[in-house]
Amino acid sequence: MNTIKEFKELFVTDARRYLDNQAFERIQRGGVFRCHSMSGKEPGLRFSFWMRLCSVLRGKKTWLPIYALALLRFNHYKYKYGISIPFITNIGKGFYIGHFGCIVVNPETIIGNNVNISQGVTIGATNRGDKAGVATIGDGVYIAPGVKIIGAIHIGNNVAIGANAVVTHDVPDNAVVAGIPARIISMNGAEGYVNRKS
Q1: Which residue has the higher pLDDT, 21 or 181?
Q2: What is the rounded distance in angstroms from the CA atom of residue 89 to the CA atom of residue 64?
Q3: Phi/psi at 87 (nearest 5 deg)?
Q4: pLDDT grade, residue 159 (50/70/90)?
Q5: How is the beta sheet containing 154-155 ordered, strand by strand?
Q6: Fold held by 90-186
């Protein structure tokens, strides 16, 4: 993300995932900072605002004072909500954090569009073996509470990952996986779990 315009576009798509039509129309009329002011009831949305803002301001000398303030707010919400998602993480539009607490994401993870992430989720790296590295997560993916995604694996589009699953192998498009280790239990995808897509 390089421009303020891109920041606004991404954050508005995040907000769309949280807010009903009426609230969303109100914040669109009021602009992105009005949207932030309405995000108090949605900790995930508030966290996303500061995460996206730090990402766009990073490395821009003319914005350094604002970046410093944004970084302070980002770190405040990171510890307050227990969400450890570095702002340098590559995250697509329409990102949705369902509940806060104990969320840890490796900064090299690539997360697609319209992804839902829940509490207790870890997306981590492995340092050896044929799966050394971090995950790439496709579009429209639902990640339930307690899920662990470990290593350089590919999660396809429209995938649902069941609660407390441990995913260590690639998952094809439209799969539903569950268990330890995770295995495919159906091909019904994430329909009904990922709503208000951007």
Answers
A1: 181
A2: 20
A3: -70, -10
A4: very high
A5: 90-91, 110-111, 136-137, 154-155
A6: UDP N-Acetylglucosamine Acyltransferase; domain 1 (2.160.10)
Q: How does pLDDT run across 124-136, given as a tens digit for each residue?
A: 999 998 999 999 9
Mutual angle of helices 21-30 and 4-18, in 10-degree steps: 160
Dist CA 175 CA 150 (whole Å): 18
**Any bridge partners for residue 113, and if so which?**
none
Q: How long, in residues, is the chain? A: 198
Cα distance between residue 95 and residue 52, in whole Å: 11
Extents of the domains making up the chain:
4-81, 90-186
Distance CA 119, CA 138 (A): 19
Separation CA 190–CA 198 (nearest Å): 15
Which tokens in the block code for residue 115? 């992804």
pLDDT band at 93 (very low <50, low <70, confident <90, very high): very high
Do 150 and 130 contact (CB within 8 A), yes or no? no
CA-CA distance, 7 to 54, in Å (whole number)? 10
pTM: 0.90
